[in-house]
């Protein structure tokens, strides 16, 4: 049985006013690019922009991390806030890559959040095979990315699989090429 989107114009919980656009039958319209999963009004997008500007202030990704942010394996009395090192991406980029490369079979007519998750995991597995290293998808606390393809964190940097900076650069370049990313790898605050 095909699942239908909710008929409600407003979400059960939100930090700012949101109004969903409904189709002629009164159902929400799927829109993976909106960041909400459903098509929303222009006013809702503006509400989100204002909220995000305040909410994410000071959590922008950092290209070079200050030494004080790294966990010292010999002194774990000071545990810095968890940060991920990698490339920030949107859900759509991961999903589109899996579709383009036909990484998994799925029914486009029954596309939903579970299908989306399946395609995202397939992209991550494919990138791991290409790069021959462990990569994880993590959720950052920032506006610019929904996911971070993570090579390591500031808590496990001293036991990272890729110790050679040249290996790290090769992995980053491979991911950038495959996903057509232009931004450099950065440090992202964990959500």
Describe the structure.
By secondary structure, the chain is α+β, with helices and mostly antiparallel strands. It has helices at 42-55, 91-100, 113-131, 165-179; strands at 30-31, 37-38, 83-89, 136-138, 147-153, 186-189. Strands 4-5-3-6 form a four-stranded antiparallel beta sheet. Strands 1-2 form a two-stranded antiparallel sheet. Helix 2 packs across helix 3. The chain is globular, with a radius of gyration of 19 Å.
Element layout with pairings:
Elements: E1 30-31, E2 37-38, H1 42-55, E3 83-89, H2 91-100, H3 113-131, E4 136-138, E5 147-153, H4 165-179, E6 186-189
Antiparallel strand pairs: 1-2, 3-5, 3-6, 4-5
Helix pairs in contact: 2-3
In short:
This protein has 191 residues and is of the alpha+beta class. The protein is 30% helix and 13% strand. The radius of gyration is 19 Å and the shape is globular.
Beta-strand share of residues:
5-15%
What ranges have pLDDT less than 50 throughout 5 or more consecutive residues?
Answer: none
Rg result: 19 Å
* Mean pLDDT figure: 86
Largest sheet: 4 strands, antiparallel
Tell me, what's the shape? globular
- Structural class of the helix and strand makeup? alpha+beta
Kindly, what is the distance between the CA atoms of the first and last residues, rounded to a whole number of angstroms? 35 Å
Question: Order of strands in the sheet with the most strands?
Answer: 4-5-3-6
Task: Work out the count of structural domains.
Answer: 2
**E-strand count:** 6
- SSE order: EEHEHHEEHE
Helix content: 25-40%
């Amino acid at each position: 049985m095909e699942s239908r989107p909710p008929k409600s114009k407003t979400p059960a919980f939100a930090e700012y006013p949101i109004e969903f656009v409904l189709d002629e039958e009164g159902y929400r319209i799927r829109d993976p690019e909106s960041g909400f999963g459903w098509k929303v009004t222009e006013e809702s997008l503006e509400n989100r922009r204002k909220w995000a500007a305040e909410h994410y202030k000071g959590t922008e990704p950092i290209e070079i991390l200050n030494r004080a942010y790294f966990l010292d394996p010999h002194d774990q009395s000071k545990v810095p806030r968890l940060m991920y090192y990698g490339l920030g991406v949107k859900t759509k980029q991961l999903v589109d890559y899996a579709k383009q490369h036909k990484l998994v079979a799925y029914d486009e007519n029954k596309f939903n959040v579970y299908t989306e998750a399946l395609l995202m995991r397939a992209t991550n597995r494919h990138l791991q095979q290409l790069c021959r290293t462990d990569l994880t998808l993590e959720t950052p606390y920032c506006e610019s990315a929904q996911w971070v393809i993570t090579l390591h964190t500031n808590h496990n940097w001293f036991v990272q699989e890729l110790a050679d900076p040249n290996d790290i650069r090769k992995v980053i370049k491979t991911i950038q090429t495959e996903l057509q990313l232009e931004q450099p790898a950065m440090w992202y605050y964990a959500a």
